Amino acid sequence: MDIGQVTGKVAAEKKSGGGDEYLKRHFYQNDLKHMSHIFSCIVLIVAAVLVACIVFYHADRPLQVFSGAFTLFQVRSNLSSSSPKEDRSLENVLFKASMPNKTVILTTLNEAWAAPNSVFDLFLRSFRTGNETIELLNYVVVIAMDEKAYNRCIAIHPHCYHLTSNGTDFSGEKGFMTPDYLKMMWRRIEFLGTVLDLGYNFIFTDTDIMWFRNPFSRFHPDADFQIACDFFRGNPRDLHTNLPNGGFTYVKSNNQTSKFYKFWYESRESYPGLHDQDVLNKIKLDPYIIKIGLRIRFLDTAYFGGFCEPSKDLNKVCTMHANCCVGLSNKVNDLNIILGVWQKYLSNENNTWKLSNSSPWNVPKNCK
User: Any idea where the Nucleotide-diphospho-sugar transferase domain is (predicted)?
Assistant: First the structure.
């Protein structure tokens, strides 16, 4: 109502003797409307402050808050200017999965091995049926080499990381020593060096390794880099005759191992066409290893066995690897066999196994 309308109303009210009363009512109503507007603004401000407080209170590290399908914001520390997205996500996954002493268990996975009832399912099953191994699953970080493997991982496991491949498709089964196989192996070595640089110790385990016992008591306390063997010759310090297998390693994060992994990765150019394991055999006696003071130990196949040289004593074995075996279907078949042998062992009274000269595993079968 404009001033003219108010004046007219007042004049009319005065004739009837109520002009002053009209003015009071009019301005009282305006005051109410004004106060209502101010109150609404205050409510909105208080609500905004409360929402902000709730957001910051419930946000995890790194800060991520989701409402419905919309990401409100995402804050993570910038670890690397070269590949910030990859490194930010990696630090978060490692932080959530690590033991108090910053140790994690790492494995790699692609689509072929991630399929239901394939190697990945057998790998997880071994932890669940092993002796004091189910708790170790809390520290396992699965490094997915492709999107489908990552999606399968996050559906059944809490700690997954999608490793970018720089344009190479790592999803399908990679034949031994094919170009894509070699790229995948060297991408793995490069990645493990990054984990060391971030300050994390790790056990790296191939997914085709079955875990039957907690292995930490079998590691050498005086070593920086420990590795399983295709064939173990009896002396864990022997660099000349032990034949290492890069599918299982225990590595402490320090200056020596960080320099070693960089040297190992760079050495691929000196030995083109070889995979990481063969290059390791070439460089393990290099003077640079002595120069940096790297302490290497080889793990006994009595505890860390494989199809190449199986552990003969089920009362000691910690892990069994489907090495010396080519073909995904062959691996799956024979890994199922050793899981069956382990289940039979567990069903024996007092979990004992009579040691004999023959292998208790009945493998390799299809892997022959």
Answer: 136-335
Cis upstream peptide for 62 (omega within 30°): yes
Q: Tell me the C-alpha distance between 97 and 89, whole Å.
A: 13
Q: Is the pLDDT of residue 28 over 50?
A: no
pLDDT digits 0-9 by tens, 289-336: 999 999 999 999 999 999 999 999 999 999 999 999 988 999 999 999
At 353 the pLDDT is 64
Concatenating the DSSP letter of every residue in 207-251 gives TTEEE-B--GGGS-TT-SEEEEEEE--S-TT-TTT-EEEEEEEEE
Q: Collapsing DSSP states into helix, strand and coil, what is residue 201?
A: strand
Q: Token digits for 323?
A: 């090495």
Q: Report pLDDT for 58.
A: 46
Place of tokens 């995402």: 74
Reduced DSSP (H G I as helix, E B as strand, rest coil) percent helix, strand, coil of the chain, to 5: 45, 15, 35
Q: Cα 298 to the chain's mean position, in Å? A: 25
| pLDDT value of position 132 | 94
pLDDT band at 185 (very low <50, low <70, confident <90, very high): confident
With beta carbons less than 8 A apart as the criterion, state whether 161 and 143 touch: yes
Tokens of residue 232, six digits = 């173990």
What is the rounded (10 degree) CA torsion for 329, 112, 317, 362?
A: 0
User: If we measure between CA atoms, which residue out of 130, 230, 143 comes closest to residue 185?
Assistant: 143
Strands 209-211 and 319-321: antiparallel
Provide the residue type at 118 as one letter: S
CA 234 to CA 197: how far, in whole Å? 32
- Look at residue 65 in the predicted model and tell me its pLDDT: 33
C-alpha angle 109-113-118 in degrees, rounded to nearest 5 = 135
Alpha helices in 101-228 (DSSP H): 111-114, 119-129, 147-156, 179-197
